[in-house]
Amino acid sequence: MKNKIYKGKSTEAIHAGESLTTHPSDAQEDQSEKSGIPLLPPIYQNSTFRFSSADECASAFIDEESGYVYTRWGNPTQQVLEEKLAVLEAGESALVTASGMGAVSIALLTALAEGGHVVAMETLYSATYNLLSEDLPRMGIETTFVDATDPNKVEYAIRPDTKVIYIESPTNPLLKLVDLAACAEIAKKHNITSIIDNTFATPCGQQPIACGIDVVLHSMTKYLSGNGAVIAGAIIGDKDFIVRAKKGALRNFGAVISPFNAWLTLLGIPTLPLRWTRHCENAICIATFLEQHPAVAWVRYPGLDSHPQHELAKRQMNGFGGIITMELKGGHAAGETLVNQLQICSLAVSLGDARTLVCHPASTTHSHVPAEVRQQTGITDGLVRFSIGLEDTEDIIADLGQALDAISI
Ligand code: LCS
Fold first, then answer.
1. Is the pTM higher than 0.90?
2. Among 247, 271, 295, which residue terminates a domain?
3. What is the domain extent for residue 298?
4. In angstroms, what is the span from residue 142 Cα to ligand 1's centroid?
5. Exposure string (b/e) for 113-129, b if CB count within 10 Å is 16 or more?
6. For residue 109, what pLDDT band results from cuts at 50, 70 and 90?
7. How far, in Å, are 45, 93, 164, 172, 188 from residue 212 at the CA level?
8. Mutate which of 108, 124, 221, 360 for ligand 1 pocket (most atoms within 8 A of beta carbon)
9. Residue 1 lies in a domain
10. Using CA atoms, how far apart are residues 85 and 351, in angstroms rounded to an integer?
11. What is the pLDDT of residues 210-244, one digit of tens each?
């Protein structure tokens, strides 16, 4: 591969990793006489790879870098995506997984290979919360949940056997922020692996590895693919961590991405920087509109002055993202009226799509989190989450306006 001569996010999103399979002879034995290199990385939609001799096959098992063996171990389409993600997140190495939860599980199982204790942010995506509070304890791994908006609380919860600090920032769905540099410093001081789920911010919105965080993960189902067509995940970190994850939890638990889904994600990433800018531009206008509507009790968006951590958002983020959370004055009933009236915005879970999506976390994404934990952490019954899409701002505002006006206050 030639040395990389670019450093802009848009150029990275388009070109990084793509030289890996730009010539068929890079990955195929069949040397074509014809000129012409595929501009898009091809899909290698195959489960296994053949060898021309017993020696060649045996050496691929000894030196795994020397070739492809089996798609659960690695595949050229996956590898292009991995190279691109490592560059975008400024990490040494990356691996891609079948889902965002695949990435969360593999990152945790790798960092906790010998057991240990986790200190985690108290509000997290619900399946991550359930993994930490129900599944891992059955394997002897305990988690202490803390309000990580205060780094002192993170440090206070550390025990001699703590192996991982696990955070999201902004969190799903309350958009709380964690000071990444402060958290990374605590982790380094105590020799603990810091892991962040960067799904909400994307590599365009913040660069956790540059802030000192060890491992970054994503649900690529969301902004990275951006097309609403795939379930996919990724982990980015240092080479040693990624190799351990690949040879261990990924391979043995088997949460491997299909080449087709890796390829669909590759189609989405080149437009991520453009989409991110547009999501951010739309979201600040809509958050400002919602904040002054009489049916709305409060709005949470890191780009608003009213966000309690707006200064931190300005310091550590590049754009404030496309997710807005708000509380309706009329609670659950008002929420029902709102979602039933909407015409452009779709009532759907997930986020990061071109389409504006609306959901009610208490009855959907976070319904498996115990009610008392939801109340304690602020996921109230009147909370509504928007994933602002790429439609024209005035059309989204008109749709939300007519739906909010239908709520009687
Ligand atoms: N991390 C975050 C922050 C998420 O929001 C999600 C899914 C995941 C990880 C898991 O990713 P998956 O396995 O689905 O690719 N969040 C969802 C949500 O808020 N609504 O539906 C799914």
1. yes
2. 271
3. 272-405
4. 22
5. eeebbbbbbbbbbbbbb
6. very high
7. 36, 15, 14, 22, 8
8. 221
9. no
10. 20
11. 999 999 999 999 999 999 999 999 999 999 999 99
